[in-house]
Amino acid sequence: MEKIVRPESMQRITTLDLANKFIDEQVKEIREQVGDKKVLLALSGGVDSSVVAALLIKAIGKQLVCVHVNHGLMRKGESEQVIEVFGKELDANLVYVDATDRFLDLLKGVSAPEEKRKIIGGEFIKVFDEEASKLSGISFLAQGTIYPDILESDGVKAHHNVGGLPEDMQFELVEPVKLLYKDEVRVVGDALGLPHNMVYRQPFPGPGLGVRCLGAITRDRLHALREADAILREEFDKNGLAGKVWQYFIAVPDMKSVGVKDGKRYEGWPAIIRAVNTTDAMTATIEEIPYSLLHHITNRITTEVEGINRVLFDLTPKPVGTIEWE
Ligand code: XMP
User: Fold this and answer.
1) Does ligand 1 have an atom closer than 6 angstroms to the CB of 160?
2) What angle, rounded to 10 degrees, do the helices at 47-60 and 16-34 form?
3) Burial class (CB in 10 A: 0-12, 13-18, 19+), 183
4) CA-CA distance, 79 to 293, in Å (whole number)?
5) For the whole model, what pTM was predicted?
6) Helix 182-191 and helix 47-60: axis angle, to 10°?
7) How far apart are CA 178 and CA 127, in angstroms?
8) How confident is the model at residue 152 (pLDDT cuts 50, 70, 90)?
């Protein structure tokens, strides 16, 4: 990645006014760079790629082609939101690829975490590459690179860039938010009118629920994980924790325990709640969730989610536990 340095004089974007000024400048620059050519963007639905998409739609409209690859490991509702916001509301040129079966078939029986990551990352590139080769006349590739990505590009997080694209792709890059920090990207996203839950979305690993459905992924356990995770997010939203806790999710291990439901033996998986606070993800502390809320979430998950018969709360800070379980 090209080494660029944010000018000392560049003002931090903290208000909608400053964001609108940035947007106007970028729209002009993007139009100058792109002319009447076409631009391709891998749109994951994460904060950075969503803001880049919205900026480019504002600047060049249908000259932008967004490709959203659903690897089947998204959180509940996330691919649907990409289609709703970009495909419908913003009327973008959106190619939606449901590659769920491809990913889950490849992952069948694979339990080693790094092997799972490699498969997901490799297949993502393949699917994106296939879609790109079906399109004609693309001259540019847009990316949601942000300033910390540049600062860390030779550091520890390199392996995290699962959305990384093939190096032999011969496109000129369009990276309109490459000098911004995450908080600035969010203000720009707000100014562009993107939904709040998209702009303030938690960090989500590239391999998605793949590293939270522990061990070898099965469709039924992945489904249970997605539903339990949706309940956790809904309850955190309702109880004012969504904006307060840095990252929270459910992990479901590949093991069953004995339980009892409706008077009958009920073997099920445990759902593990992880809720952490951090500034840089290198260390993390545990959020103190009120017991009453934990009881309520436990009750909802065990009654509403097929296959789950226990709920556990992970009290381990990082170190010694990493944030993710795999
Ligand atoms: P760990 O588990 O290493 O996580 O404490 C630190 C942060 O990184 C995220 N994470 C990933 N992000 N691809 C990503 O894009 C990955 O493979 C990956 N693994 C962990 C994790 O969610 C946390 O925010």
Assistant:
1) yes
2) 60
3) exposed
4) 28
5) 0.93
6) 40
7) 25
8) confident
Which is it for strands 269-277 and 247-251: parallel, antiparallel or unpaired?
A: antiparallel
Residue 81 tokens read as 């939101």
Distance 208 CA to ligand 1 centre (A): 10
**Of 47, 123, 160, 212, best ligand 1 pocket probe by most atoms within 8 Å of the beta carbon:** 160
Q: What are the tokens at 287?
A: 């959020």
SS3 sequence of 276-298: EECCCCCCEEECCCCHHHHHHHH
Residue 318 in contact with ligand 1 by CB distance below 6 A: yes
Q: Per the structure block, which two tokens stand in for 20?
A: 């609108």
- Give residue 153's pLDDT band: very low, low, confident or very high (50, 70, 90): confident
Q: What is the pLDDT of residues 42-86, one digit of tens each?
A: 999 999 999 999 999 999 999 999 999 999 999 999 999 999 999
Q: Looking at ligand 1, which residue's alpha carbon is closest to its atom 18?
A: 205
Q: For residues 109-134, b (16+ Cβ closer than 10 Å) or e, as one string? A: ebeebeebbebbbebbbebbeebbee
d(CA 130, CA 134): 7
Pocket of ligand 1 contains residue 205 by CB under 6 Å: yes
Query: Does residue 44 have its Cβ closer than 6 Å to ligand 1?
Result: no
- Which residue, among 248, 255, 257, 241, has the nearest Cα to 292 in the 3D structure? 241
The answer to whether residues 66 and 41 touch, using CB atoms and an 8 Å cutoff, is yes
Q: Are 36 and 61 in contact (CB under 8 A)?
A: no
CA of 219 to the centre of ligand 1 (A): 22
Measure 209 CA to ligand 1 centroid, in angstroms.
11
Please list the residues that pair with 260 across neighbouring strands.
265
The DSSP element (H or E) to which 302 belongs, if any, is helix 291-304
240-283 pLDDT, tens digit per residue, is 999 999 999 999 999 999 999 999 999 999 999 999 999 999 99
Ligand 1 atom closest to the Cα of residue 206 is 15
